[in-house]
Amino acid sequence: MSRRSRRERRRRRRARFLSIVAVVVVAVVTVAVVLTLKTAAMSGKVFGGGGSVVGLVAPADTPLKTDADGRVNVLIFGTSQDDVGHSQGEGGQGMWLTDAIQVLSIDPKTGTAAMVAIPRDTWVKVTGTCIVGTESKINAIYECATGHFETLQEKIPDYQAVDATGAQALAAAVGSVTGLVPQYWVHVNYTVLSTSVDAVGGIDVEIVGNGHEGIFDTGLDGAGCPHEAVGCRRVYYPRDGVYHIDGQHALDLARARGDVQARSCMNFGLNGGDFDRQANQQKILSALRAKAVSAGTLANPAALSRLIDALGDNVTTNLSTDEARTAVDLARGMGSLTSISLTDPAHPVLTVGTAGQLSVVRPVAGLFDYSGVKAFVRFRIAALSATATSAPASSTAPTSATGTSSTAPVGSGASSGSSTTSRPKSTYEPPASCWGG
Fold first, then answer.
1. In the chain, what are the domain boundaries?
2. What would the pLDDT profile of 325-359 be if each residue is shown by its tens digit?
3. What pTM value is reported for the model?
4. Which phi and psi (to 5°) does residue 252 adopt?
5. What is the CATH number that goes with domain 53-435?
6. Which residues pair with 359 in a beta bridge?
């Protein structure tokens, strides 16, 4: 081969190499531009605290607000304003009720975090006037403050201001119950849970049945799912263990509480009803947080794009974009979330009771006496912080109020089985009447 031919061949190779590099650069820039534009559009809808897209990508240097103990408290609550079943035109029922209420309390110094579930039926005083009266279940506080009960979200031109008014009222009510006064709040719709879980490729959740092995709830199944079938079940986990679930199954599990209904003899593993639902919501949020801040998710443009889509239309918060950037860094450094139950049978501070003719959740000490609840929360959080400062760096915080730790993922699907350690609990056997129709 002549010298000229060799030079020409090397030139063509360099040209091909440069072309490939150019394509890669263009692709990276395109992805970056798309994500930036999407994030900019999202920031105006999500972050009520203000800021710009720059705050989300700049180095975190904006400190978060804290309480007197130096903790960051975030109220996380959910409504069904985006649920077709609740909002089919005007007159939708329950769409503004906050049926999921959790407080995330973080110690920035130790990186420890606790999540406290607030039962939706907790009986509290109502500030101001409301059609429900001067007292109500805590899940009505948000809608009472907004003054909206049946109006579709998209028909409210000043929705962001209305939403903030409701969130602030709920935060005050939660503070009066737990003693944890939230500096921040995050309002999520149903859709964000399923889409966020799918955006990160699913999550691993430990299923622990209450009363029996596993969890089975037919409350969300349609009429087209016969008694003997399990493949069409929306909440079916035949044994205790860790299952890998997608977004729809995560949403269904977050809503399952073993409602009494025509097929109630089929249900098991949710003897605590709404209390069990809150515990499962905590597990789901903890698993989603861990997956969302993992290196694989944050480095995946497609996953980030899906997360942005999920957040943009279904999340509002009083965090600014600068504060959100700090919060992301804080979440990355956090250990496992410790779930605190106020209705744990071993140490209950809330119990089921009555207020007038209504069945409600009230303090064990008596109606409206939340001193014991506050003392319990204060004790549990103080113990968590003390353990973090004295324990070796390799220790892992417990993931539930009972002190159990999460296990490695072993399941492969919501309806498939998973490897699991045998537990001294019975396997549910439905009576013959269940199969007889």
1. 1-46, 53-435
2. 788 778 777 777 788 989 888 889 999 999 888 89
3. 0.71
4. -65, -40
5. 3.40.630.190
6. 354
